Amino acid sequence: MRFLVLGAGALGGYFGAKLTQGGSAIEYLVRPRRAVQLAADGIVVSEGDSVIRTPRRPSALTRSVAPTT
Hints:
Oligomer: single chain
Strand order of the largest sheet: 1-2-5
Mean pLDDT: 81
Helix content: 25-40%
Strand content: 25-35%
Largest sheet: 3 strands, parallel
Number of helices: 2
Radius of gyration: 13 Å
Order of helices and strands: EHEHEEE
Low-confidence stretches: none
Shape: globular
Distance between the termini: 35 Å
Structural class: alpha/beta
């Protein structure tokens, strides 16, 4: 199954990593600065003695997203 995770902070990173561990294809939609960090390091989730590493390449937003009024 394929998923798009919006953001790769604490929650998006954790759930994306868990879905990846379960065999799902994950794509992260993040801002450009975070995309650079993820491209370099991926996401690493430490849970007790277990470590999940997700070397997925993120999709970066190419422009600012502001709420509409």
